[in-house]
Design brief:
- The protein is mostly beta strands and 264 residues long.
- The chain has two domains: 1-95 and 239-264, Pseudouridine synthase; 98-232, Pseudouridine synthase (2-Layer Sandwich).
- The chain contains four helices and 16 strands.
- The chain has helices at residues 35-42, 83-94, 201-208, 257-260, and strands spanning 5-9, 13-18, 53-55, 58-60, 74-80, 99-107, 114-118, 121-123, 131-133, 138-142, 145-156, 161-163, 185-194, 224-226, 234-242, 248-252.
- The strands form four sheets. Strands 1, 2, 5, 6, 7, 11, 13, 15 and 16 form a nine-stranded mixed β-sheet that branches.
- A hairpin with a 2-residue loop joins strand 3 and strand 4.
- It is globular and about 55 Å long.
- It starts with a strand and ends with a helix.
- The model is unreliable at 165-181 (pLDDT under 50).
Length: 264
């Protein structure tokens, strides 16, 4: 497992810098190490903090985990070290008192310098793994609001890009199957602030805008990926919440080096 960096810690709360490529908790199938494994090893007293989830009738421990990041998303992740802190933090997330900021690189040039996407999210009718905003969404449609701001628009030459069929670990091809392109492709670097906390919210809303997150093999399987990124181009930059004494705590994660070059 990659090294886990602790960004903040007190007697109640732990904030870590989650690397990309690591799931927060087990899915009941894969034997890959997860953040949960790291927590149980380093903080065994957190074993029974929070609530377990059930996957195919198996109970999966989620020690102290009050929210989650997708496997390939990096950045700030908050955990509770005791049940009191868990309930306290969980209520802040539920009441939308937690402020979250992400950085994302998306395909194409986003037209407006800033905007708000207010579109409820439901399930995809064709793929149980996916969520969908707008027409065609199934099941309960849950309110979802995402604010974004353009930090930079840029172009990349074809030799610095490959298609998703060439992504390592993604079925359907190898790096040798890289496509060639005649013109530079456009991308936008964004600051994104989700006001709600729906599953895959940023990824779904950017797909809705026709500017999917770069390297997103689930929501844009035929899209393009920057070679220097090579994974979902989404990073949880900062989070702001109250500790149990009511003090506002803001924690930031440094932008990964593979992202920094695109902000120069």
């Amino acid at each position: 497992m990659k090294k886990i960096k602790i960004l903040y810690e007190d007697k109640d709360i732990l904030v870590i810098d989650k690397p990309s490529g690591i799931s927060v908790h087990p899915d009941g199938k894969s034997k890959e190490k997860t953040i949960t494994d790291w927590v149980l090893k380093k903080y065994p007293k957190m074993k029974n903090v929070g609530e377990p989830i059930f996957f195919e009738e198996k109970e999966i421990k989620r020690p102290g985990i009050v929210h989650r990041l997708d496997r390939d998303t990096s950045g700030v992740l908050v955990l509770a070290k005791n049940q009191k802190a868990y309930e306290f933090l969980k209520n802040q997330f539920k009441n939308r008192e937690v402020k979250k900021t992400y950085n994302a690189i998306v395909s194409g040039w986003v037209k407006n310098d800033h905007g708000i996407i207010n579109k409820p999210i439901g399930r995809s009718p064709s793929d149980f793994r996916r969520r969908l905003a707008g027409r065609g969404a199934r099941g309960e449609l849950r309110e979802a609001v995402t604010e974004y701001k353009v930090l930079k628009r840029f172009e990349m030459e074809p030799h610095k890009i490959f298609s998703h069929c060439a992504l390592p670990g993604v079925p359907g091809g190898t790096l040798a199957q890289k496509k060639s392109y005649e013109v530079p492709l456009k991308f936008t670097f964004l600051e994104v602030k989700p006001k709600t906390g729906r599953t895959h919210q940023i990824r779904v809303h950017m797909k809705y805008l026709n500017h999917p997150v770069a390297c997103d093999s689930l929501y844009d399987p035929k899209g393009f990926c920057l070679k220097d990124i090579g994974r979902l181009a989404l990073h949880a930059k900062s989070i702001e919440f109250k500790d149990l004494k009511g003090k506002i705590i803001k924690i930031e994660s440094n932008l990964p080096k593979e992202f920094k070059k695109y902000l120069k």
